[in-house]
Design a protein that fits this description.
Shape: globular
Oligomer: single chain
Strand content: under 5%
Helix content: 55-70%
């Protein structure tokens, strides 16, 4: 995918070119997995500092998810929590001199948006069965094309929003440093950190809203319909 950003090729495997974005993304995932294994291998009923910190992070993430969907917070924690852990690290990688955030590459943000797209329908089907798809025909089957277009456009917007913000942030920081030199590195660094964290939060929150909305697309059961007809309710 051509995203307008030139990323160096680190390795060639036959005709396949492995770009810097792929390498840095896999390194981030590897570092997070190794850190998770090391920090959770000695859990106890009397937590130490590391375990207490981890429990605090998990509870904070779960409470944030519960604000949007309190009934399914535990079920949504693995997906949304992963976004809120991976994205800040990926976005902040550009702060390190000589490194670039993988999320400034449209192919990465598009892949993340596709994960959200498929997760929405996977959680919806798991919650309501195949009847979940009936909401695309509501209130009229005529609106089916508009529902499909809405799903596609919000997925594209999710990818482009993160890509555009991170790429423009890195380019703005680079231009300011070229013009002002190192006279204003601290404000630029703080701006980069704040914006990177905000964009990670927004992406995760939008994913949460989409998935939680899909899980609430429940269909009326035959039992409920029968009880209403027997009681004379309209």
């Amino acid at each position: 995918m051509n995203d307008g950003v030139s990323t160096p090729v680190w390795l060639h495997i036959g005709p396949l070119a492995i770009h810097e974005t792929v390498v840095t993304t896999w390194l981030i995932m590897l570092a997070l997995v190794v850190a998770s294994i090391l920090m959770t291998r000695r859990l106890s009923l009397q937590p130490g500092r590391v375990q207490a910190m981890l429990e605090g992070v998990v509870l904070t993430l779960e409470n944030a998810i519960a604000n949007a969907d309190s009934r399914n917070a535990r079920r949504l924690l693995p997906l949304i929590g992963t976004f809120w852990i991976f994205l800040p690290v990926a976005n902040l990688l550009g702060v390190i001199p000589g490194m670039h955030s993988p999320t400034r590459d449209l192919s990465v943000t598009a892949a993340l948006a596709l994960v959200v797209f498929f997760a929405v329908h996977a959680y919806g089907v798991r919650q309501s069965g195949l009847g979940y798809f009936r909401h695309y025909l509501s209130p009229s089957p005529i609106l089916l094309p508009f529902h499909i277009i809405s799903e596609i456009t919000r997925t594209v917007a999710l990818a482009i929003r993160l890509f555009g913000n991170i790429m423009s942030l890195e380019m703005a920081a680079l231009l300011i440093l070229l013009v002002a030199g190192f006279l204003a590195p601290v404000p630029i660094l703080m701006l980069h950190i704040i914006e990177a964290l905000v964009q990670a939060y927004i992406f995760g929150m939008l994913a949460l809203i989409y998935v939680a909305g899909a899980m609430q697309q429940t269909t009326e059961s035959p039992v409920t319909t029968s009880s209403r007809s027997n009681s004379g309710a309209p």
